[in-house]
Each structure stands twice: as C-alpha cells, then as structure tokens.
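REQUEST ID: PR-0412
SUBMITTED BY: lab tech R.K.
PRIORITY: routine
TASK: structure prediction, single protein chain
INPUT:
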Amino acid sequence: MVKQQELPVNCALERLGELHGRRASSESVPIIKYCMDGEEPSPNGAYFISQCQKQADNRCKQILGSEEPVDASCFVMVSRDGMEAYAMVFPPIREGKALEQADLEKILKQEGITYGIQEQVLKRLIEGAYFQMAVCAKGTPPIHGEDGQVEDFFQRNNDVVYNYGEDEQADYKNLNWIRKVGKGDVICRITPPTEGTPGTTVKGQTVAPKPGRPASIPMGKNTEMSEDGLELRAAVDGQIFFDKGLFRVDEVLFIQGDVDTSVGNLDVIGDLVIGGDVKEGYIIHATENIVVQGLVEGADIKAGGSIDLKKGMNGGNRGTVEAGGDVKATFLENCNVTVRGNLYADSLINCKVVCSGHIEVNQGRGMIVGGSIMATEYIIAKVIGNLSHRPNTILIGFTPELVREKEQLTKELQEMRQQQEQAAKNVSYLERFEGQLTEEYEKLYKEQKLRLSVLNMKYAKAQKKFEVLQEQQRDLKGCYVKSSIIHPLTQITIGRETRTIDKEIRAVRVWCGPDGVTMSIG
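STATUS: complete
OUTPUT:
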C-alpha cells in the first residue's frame, strides 16, 4: 500500500487535474497527494516537486483558452549528486495521447540518463500514475575507503591489576603492572586503508571514492616495523610501555623509589635499577643485571647477570641473592648467596655463600664472620672470624653443585654398566643360535645388538665427562685462602683436605700442598 504524503498543491496542479477529468472533493483523496515510493520526499525530491509545480503552471498557461487535445508529458530532473533521477508524468488533456514506455525511455536518454533505470517504475508511470513523484533511475554511490586500523596486542596502560584469593583478600605483592616483551614479538598489527569502490551516476559518470586515511602507527623507542609494514614489533627484549601516543620497549627498568606495596614483586627482562630500598618479603628477578641503590631486607634477589647492592643486605635469615654473574655489596648479613661469577663485599656476616669464582672481602671492614663460605678459586679477606671464636667454615676448590653433578654421574654410570652387561648377555646367548632363530627371535636379536651399541656410546660419553669432573677436583694449584687475621674455630677445606685453625694467626696464606693443607705466615 502506498503511503500517503501531503505535498504542496497549487492552483495549476489542481487545474490540470480538473482538465484531465479528475476533480478533488472534500470527501475524496486530493489528486496531488503522495510520492510513488510512499516515503517522505528527500530534500532533492522536495525540490523536484517544487519544479513540477512550476512546470504545471507553464503547462496550464499553454493550454488554457484552447480546446485542442494535449498529449501527456513527463518532467525529469537529476539530483545534484547525480545519484537519482526523478520523474513526474502530467496527464493528457482533452483526449490527448498517453505516454508509452518507449516515450519515457527516449525522454530519459535525451536527458543523458542511461544507468540504473528502474523499469518497473517506468511501467507504473505509463499506467496512469500521474502527479506522482517517482525515482526513475538510481546510481551506485561510491563506497569510500576505510581508514587504516591498529590492533593492539598489549594494553596501553600499565595499571595495577590486583589478584584476589579465595578469602577475597587482594595480593599486594603481585601487582601485574609490568608487561614483558621479547625481541620480535608483535606489539600491534596494522590494517592498511582501503581505496574504496568507485560509484556511477545515473548519467553513467564514474564517481571516485575517498580513499581511507592511513593509521597512525604508535612506533616508539626500540620498536620496528615488519618488512611488509603490517606489524609493529619489539626490536629488543624488555618491558613495554605506552607513553605520549607511542609504544616503547625499555631494556632497563628504573624504579625511582622503594620496592613496597606501591610497586610489588618485579620480574623483568633486561636490566633493573632500583633507586630506593627493597622491603622484606618481595621477589626481584631480572634476566640481566640488578642495581639496588638502597638497603635490601629479607627479599629474594635473582639476576641472570650481575647484582650490585650499593648499601648491602640484611636478609633476616630469609633473604637470598642469586646471580649469573658477579655480586658486589657493601655488606651481606644473614642471607644465602649463590654466585656464578665472583663475589666482592666489605663484609660477610653469618651468610651461606656458594661462589663459582673467587671471593674478595678486602675493602672497608673486610670481615668474614660465621656462616659457610664456598668458592671454586680463592678467598681473600682482611679478617676471618672474630674474638668470640664464632665458628667459620671455608671451603675452596669445588662447589656443592660440582659434587652433586659428580655423584649423579657416578650413579648413571653404574646403571648404564648394569644395562650393558644384561644386553651383552642377551646378544651372546642369541648368537649361539644364529641361522636357526625364528622371525620373532631374529627381530629381538637385532634390537639387543642395537641397544648394546647405543649403551656403549652413552657410557663412553658419560665416562669422559666424569674424567673432566675428576680433573677439576684435582686441579687445586690456584686455590687458597689469604687473610690478615684468622681467628680460632675457623675450618678451612681445600679439595678433600681440611684444617682447623685453633689459635689466632696473622698475615696467613692457606693452600693445598703435597702433604695436605699448608699455611705460610708473614
């Protein structure tokens, strides 16, 4: 059903209707009442209707005062954007000739309208849809290009995200604000802008689309674009941040103040520099180096590289320090220290130390008091022990890790030897029946021979490794302990030889000679 829509009606259109034989009455529908499509006229449609009224006025002036028949006519207009053509058919007057579809097509062609012609509309117009605005041709609007987009794979903020336990209490140590990224990781993916699709006017003219705008790529420090320009990637390992509209990757993370509830535990890629203290109970991990400007309490400090504790650490018998490189500290007290490199400190008080290199405690107070100190190479200190005769344990030459590795290797060699003997027995037994074995036993014979060969290779490799470890334990020429003062109840072990110092000695050097642990004084 066609929706009725009141249109402006003037005397000329009414007069044309009367001349055509359609007279409006107070009880009937006015002759100029609605658009053919049943919708509200667009601004272009309303403008077309106003022009139709002018055309009707001119038409009335031409036929008034004359009794001659007047053929039907069609007024056509193209919208300003060229995407629609409007038509209105004026009826024949006084037995004039009605329009046929070919007439309408000819009119459209004269107006240059060749694209998107609505055949069904033309059919309705010639069937008597007079005084009705109709869209007789429709163009195809251009599809404008879409702007480029950025799809982020990392959040653009580093806000704290609290975890809650079953008791609904927030975890104030694991705050999840650090976002780690590895070299080559995709930070965001870029969708290029599109060019869009051209359109066509009712006159067959091509309308170019507006191309989309390129995305603003948030490329900051230590980030790089992929070769195809579609991905923003991390150029280095580190922590990712979004600042001033750009992503950046920091190889060094700086914490300006203390590590406390405002910062939480830290687990970073690269270097870490802490400007304040590290409070008790916090975990600090970095894949590279760690520098702490303040005091470290009973915390867990672990670095893939070196650790530098500018003001030292009092671990409260729970703190740990573990470094893949060297450790430097003003003092270390009541803590466990594992060092893959060398250890340099002004004092070691009641510590358990395992060092794969050497230990030097010869600056400042230069004291080693209490605890257990192990080093692979040598130990130098101003003072070992104190006047209260507190026990000290010094071990040089090999670390517990080396001992454990040797013990594990010894166990593996024993197990492999047993397996070799069993496989050899099986092969020897089956060889006695060679040529007489069933298919099943022939298969078993080949499997046992292969197994024996593999076991022999593994055993030879493990034996060689064991010999290397043996040599490491025997090579004690460069191992020694040197101190200005060693107080009593200090036990020194070099290799497998042990000596206990039961009286104070000064300017002493202890090493392992042909006859065991040897001391030289002065």
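NOTES: Confidence is low (pLDDT under 50) at residues 1-9, 23-34.
REVIEWED BY: pending
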